[in-house]
Amino acid sequence: MIKEICSPFRQLDESGPGIRCVVLDAVVDPELPRWIYQLAPAGAPRWAPLFAGTGFAALADSGPAFVLSEGPGDWADYANAMLEQSHSGCVLYLDDLQNWDAAVKHLQSILAVSTEQRKNQLMRFFEPRWLEPLINELTAEERQNFLGPFRAIAWRNELGWRQLSRLQAWNRVIPEPGWLHIGQARLQRMTQIRLSIMARELAQDYGAVLKMPEPTAFVYQCLLEAQDAGVQQKAHYERWLRLVLGNSDIPWPTSAAKQVIARVDLAIAGKLDELERLQG
Q1: Is the four-CA dihedral 109, 112, 116, 117 of positive or negative sign?
Q2: Planar angle of CA 143, 149, 153, nearest 5 degrees
Q3: What residue ranges do the domains of the chain occupy?
Q4: Which candidate in 17, 96, 199, 238 could, as Cys together with 220 as Cys, close a disulfide (CB 3.0–4.6 Å)?
Q5: How far is it, in rounded angstroms, from Cα 25 to Cα 33?
Q6: Is 225 exposed, middle or buried (0-12, 13-18, 19+ CB in 10 A)?
Q7: Rounded CA separation 190/104 (Å)
Q8: Is the omega angle on the peptide bond into residue 253 within 30 degrees of 0, that is, cis?
Q9: pTM value?
């Protein structure tokens, strides 16, 4: 299952589970294609724009790139910085370079998922904040199919660097796009897993003031209450937690706070502003 690891860029090449590659998102850095060529170790870089040749080809200029990233050097430093400093992608360990073309097709097959509304809904599978919720929601067979020709996948979220390794050999089958179904029930479970990850991070960040026996459980319950109040963004969840902690000597939300939360003329950011004004 998922395990904690050090940065894939601080490991010796021979200590990794396979041939190191990265998926990086040009949405984070529009200059990504230029850096791929400018920082390539020696000769032409080996890479593929993943939206090319798919139903998302019109977005190719701002889409993800799959790049061979073996060894140290300027490109590895750039990729490491991107993954450490932004939610820009993930690391994949390929079995064999002979499987490069198959690996590109495999990654394109998991760019699209099926939902109740669409057969080919774009899924940015490489988004590190959602990789752990997704992986935890997959069955063992789906995890195997999700990894395909890759021995392992690594990503960095609020808990640090994480890795999932393949348990069985690749069956050399590349499924059609949309093979993975993400229905509303599954998406809701993924959202709750995402919430639990945020709770673990916030419990660590606010450990000095969380004196209860199970701080992570306390924070998670606070985030659930925030979710019920309409909170969706991470920064807003933290603001809600700070309100709870700032009113620790009284039951919160108070009646005045409940009136603010019930207002329909304010978006959630406005409600939090009002709640913070009430708190003083």
Answers
A1: negative
A2: 55
A3: 3-182, 187-279
A4: 199
A5: 10
A6: middle
A7: 26
A8: yes
A9: 0.91
Question: How are beta strands 150-157 and 64-68 bridged, if at all?
Answer: unpaired
Q: 108 vs 150, 152, 183, CA distance in Å?
A: 14, 17, 20
Q: What is the DSSP letter of 228?
A: H
Residue in 8, 86, 78, 71 with CA at minimum distance from that of residue 36: 78
H/E element holding 91? strand 89-94
Contact by Cβ (8 Å): 82, 26: no
| DSSP single-letter state for residue 175 | P
For residue 121, report the phi and psi dihedrals to the nearest 5 degrees. Answer: -95, 130
Per-residue pLDDT of the chain (280 residues; tens, 9 = 90+): 899 999 999 865 555 789 999 999 999 999 999 999 999 987 789 999 999 999 999 998 889 999 999 988 999 999 999 999 999 999 999 999 999 999 999 999 999 999 999 999 999 999 999 999 999 999 999 999 999 999 999 999 999 999 999 999 999 999 999 999 999 999 999 999 999 999 999 999 999 999 899 999 999 999 999 999 999 999 999 999 999 999 888 888 989 999 999 999 999 999 999 999 998 7
Strand ranges inside the chain, DSSP E: 3-4, 19-25, 47-49, 64-68, 89-94, 112-113, 121-122, 150-157, 160-165
Q: Do 202 and 219 touch, CB atoms closer than 8 A?
A: yes
- The identity of residue 82, as a single letter, is M
CA distance 265 to 248: 28
Element (H, E) at 160: strand 160-165
